[in-house]
Design a protein that fits this description.
4 helices, two-stranded parallel ribbon, mainly alpha, 75 residues
């Protein structure tokens, strides 16, 4: 066993995210958004579940709007 706890991994990830610039956060959000939009599951789904992101999380407003524009039911 590596001896690394989930808590330690989460703390490390929080620290890494905190060091990202606004531009890096925006680019990461766009990369994740495009990856999801290309998935056949997204394209075929009549209903999708999304959340409104917090400021330090990948942004989801674009996905929410694209889902609505595509006629999907967004939960």
């Amino acid at each position: 066993m590596l001896g690394i706890t989930k808590g330690a991994i989460r703390e490390e990830m929080r620290a890494r995210v905190a060091r990202l610039s606004e531009e890096e956060r925006r680019a990461a959000s766009q990369t994740m958004e495009m990856a999801l939009l290309e998935r056949p599951e997204w394209k075929q789904a009549p209903v999708v579940g999304l959340y409104l992101s917090l400021t330090d999380e990948p942004q989801t407003r674009g996905l929410l709007q694209m889902g609505l524009d595509a006629g999907k039911k967004v939960l």
